[in-house]
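ESCALATION

Customer reports they have been waiting on this structure for their group meeting. Please prioritize. Original submission:
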Amino acid sequence: MEGKSDRHIVIFRFSALGDVAIAAPLVKAYAIANPTVKFTMVSRPMLEPLFKGVDNLLFYPAQLNGEHKGVKGLIKLWRELSSQKVTHVADLHSVLRTYILRVLFFFSFVPIAFLKKGRSQKKALTRKKNKKLVQLPSMMERYEQVFQKLGLEFLDFANKPAEDRKLGGKEHEKRSEVELKIGIAPFAKHKGKEWSIEKMEKVVELLSKKQGVSISLFGGGAKESALLKGWEYKYIGVTSVAGKLNFDKELEQIAKLDLMICMDSANMHFASAMGVPVISIWGATHPYLGFNGWGQDLERAVLSPAECRPCSVFGNKECFRGDYICLSSLEPHQVIEKVSNFFA
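Update from on-call: job pushed to the front of the queue and completed.
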């Protein structure tokens, strides 16, 4: 019978950026708690910085747009991983790509555990009629269930209070005589998640008028970078880092913040992974779906009382009302109030 020291667990999670960021603190915690077990995280190359710093946790880049593209590419990836004496597979993604890899490992007699997404529960929460607005298990809890199925000791990491965590752990301190560093990430991938850019600019304007506050703006792409550069020129104490840093350096910049203000987006999860408190702005989605930032207080979420939301798991559905009231009803003063209460 193999001992824990002989184990090599390969973990799959290719996308989305936020979902990989949710997994990062958990994967690192399990690696730290099991120092004689070898862990290999397989994901997109740019995400490697999220998994640095643990000796028995390695990162293997999946070139899904290159040599590992398509079925032939996945077979190549399987062969490469198999050569490293894999003993167990943890699939934190459960999509077609990882299903193919699971089949290949299954026929190699490698034990496998995989993510159960809770689709029926999420459907009940997002349907138009008879909506069941209840808290579902967080994604981190669902990931943790996968590790338990592989026989790893249950850490209950997803539910530990912040002060008990071994990772992330930048504890908020109330400060009045030093500069407060606030990050703002105004963009999201889907329309159902993205607040009015004019209203977010108003938040930047109001915060820039406060003494002892510096603001860093986060975004990506030429259009977003140009917009944020305009805010930098327009308001005192505001700096845009959009398009200036690689991912590793951007995480370092986020880790220095006292607070992040953002949508239900990847930046919420990057900040959470770095132990930074977040004020999150939600539209068509809802924290109850299980995608709130790890360790983030629900009281810091800015939510509309609109009864039609949540109507989408990922914010990618068109608004059946046509007006996105879940977002249009939110106002800058609600965000500023959350900021003031946080630093009070």
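Sent to customer with the following note: The chain has two domains: 4-153, 180-343.
Escalation resolved.
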